[in-house]
Amino acid sequence: MSTPLDKARREPESMKARILTVARRLFGEYGFHGTTTRMIAQEVGIDISTLHYHWGGKKDLYESVVLDINKDLRQKLLEVEGMIHDRPLAERLTISIDVMTDYLFLQPCVSNLILFRYFSKNRYEGNLDFSVPEFTADIAFSMGLSTDRKHVSPETKMKVVALMNSIHNFISGEGFFRPMLDLTHERYVKMVKDTLNFIHIPAFTKAGDG
């Protein structure tokens, strides 16, 4: 049986998809507790009853946003894995940082929602969550830091978390960091990539040599 999310992803011009797109952005900007269904409905240009008809309550829509982001992230990680397969570790990191940074700058709601979920005091207490542990293991395997996707050491996961957390913070913090550095968006994106490479490539390659 198709879910509302299945239908929205299958029909990107539909009302369900329009609501989902706005919900991703607003939940990313204001978090679960700071976003109301009325805000989403007003942004889409519909009445609130139409939103509830397509998605149910706020919790249902938020959980669909989380699932939608999880699916997008997994698809992007598989794409990156295919690009970096069998390359040296430094090349894997460079390509991964470049592709994932571009993707996340185009979809800042992803970084915003992940950071909201794990660092906000107003936490959403539902059962559904971002697939960060699974993604961390997938990234470690793709990078060649583990030979077994299902058994990745806590030490290796922590290194991957450090990499992903630094990317998410640069994305989510653009509104603060970029004016402070007096940079255009394009220059900021380039400097983020350069900085991530500067920090992580020596650290990971040195660890790999050891």
The radius of gyration over CA amounts to: 18 Å
The CATH homologous superfamily: Tetracycline Repressor, domain 2
Order of helical and strand elements: HHHHHHHHHHH
- Contiguous low-pLDDT stretches (5 residues minimum) are none
Instruction: Give the count of helical stretches.
Output: 11
Q: Describe the biggest sheet? A: none
| Tally of strands | 0
| Percentage of residues in DSSP E strands | under 5%
- Domain module tally: 1
By CATH reckoning, the class would read Mainly Alpha
Shape: globular
CATH topology: Tetracycline Repressor, domain 2
CATH architecture: Orthogonal Bundle
Oligomer: single chain
Could you outline the blueprint of secondary structure elements for this entry?
Layout: H1 4-10, H2 15-34, H3 37-44, H4 48-55, H5 58-84, H6 89-106, H7 108-119, H8 132-142, H9 154-172, H10 174-181, H11 185-209
What does this structure look like?
The protein is 78% helix and 0% strand. It is mainly α. It has a single domain (4-209), classed as Tetracycline Repressor, domain 2 (Orthogonal Bundle), CATH 1.10.357. Helix 2 (15-34) runs antiparallel to helix 3, helix 2 (15-34) packs across helix 5 (58-84) and helix 5 packs antiparallel against helix 6 (89-106). The radius of gyration is 18 Å and the shape is globular.
